[in-house]
Structure formats: structure tokens, C-alpha cells
Amino acid sequence: MATRQDWLDEGLTILAASGAPALTIELLCERLGLTKGSFYHHFRGMPGYRAALLDHFETRCTTELIDLAEADPHAPAAARLERLFDLVGSSGDSPALEVAMRSWAQQDERARAVQERVDRRRTDYLRALWEQHGGEEPETMARLLYLVLIGAGHLVPPLTFAQVREIYDLALRPHLHEKERSR
Q1: pTM for this structure?
Q2: N or C: which end of the chain has fewer CB within 10 A?
């Protein structure tokens, strides 16, 4: 028997592969090899499922990553930033998931509200880390780092995380090493 988590994880997989219109009870049941009764055991129809899926996306792709990056809140900001990059790169989520979420947000108010909250939380965290590091123009740097990640997924084909990491290194290394030398 599939858990609520299994249903939500499969929904993110479908979303990344085929977009929000493909999220149907029938496809979910087919992919999991289960009946509609199992679906309704966990969710009160498709609207409830979609709301839970949006919450799951926010938790898995933002809250959990930030919490893991903050596992050692006394670590230097640069170390937490590096940890965050590593976590994003090893999360296993494809850039297609971010693209699909943004597409969904263009057509659905609830998805839009979640995407706005996710974007705000992510950029606020990047800004806070850059401020703690003592970097200049933290708002601009947070936007730059975030835009590189989001934009990389929209290229055809999307950049690999290794390619995104090279861009981050180019943008950040002079600032990170400059701070280390001045200590």
C-alpha cells in the first residue's frame, strides 16, 4: 500500500515530466499500480491532492534544504552557502520540476501563491547568508544566485548542476576568498 508521501512524490515526478495538466487520479493510480480507493484513502479528491502537492513541493524543495543547510547554525555563512549548493545539486530533483511549477503558477492562483512564497523564502535565505558573510549588495547577490539556478533550468537543454556550479564559483570565489584573506 502506498503512503501519502508516495502519492505526493509520484505527483512531483509526473509534474516534472508532463506538467500540471497531467496530474490526474487515473495517471497517479496507473503509475503507482493502485486503485482510486487508495487515492481517496489519503486525499479528498483532486483539489485536496493538488493543495497537498504544492505544500509537499515547498517543504521538499525549500524548507528541508534550508533546514539541512542550517544543521550547524554556528558554521560560517560561506560554509552554509556551500552546503546549500551541495544539497540542491544532490537533491535528485530535475530542473524540469522548477519549470513545471512556474508554468503551473502562471495558470493557478494557489500554485502562484506557493511559488511566490518559495521564491521569497529562497532569496531571503540567500540574502541573509550573504549579509552574514559580509558580502556587498546582498539583495542583488541573492537575486543573481537565484536567477542563475532558475534560468539554467529554462535553457534547452537545461544546464547541468555542474555547469551551474561553475557559474556560482565564478561569481562567488573572489568574494569568498577575499573575506578569508582579510581574516
Answers
A1: 0.92
A2: C
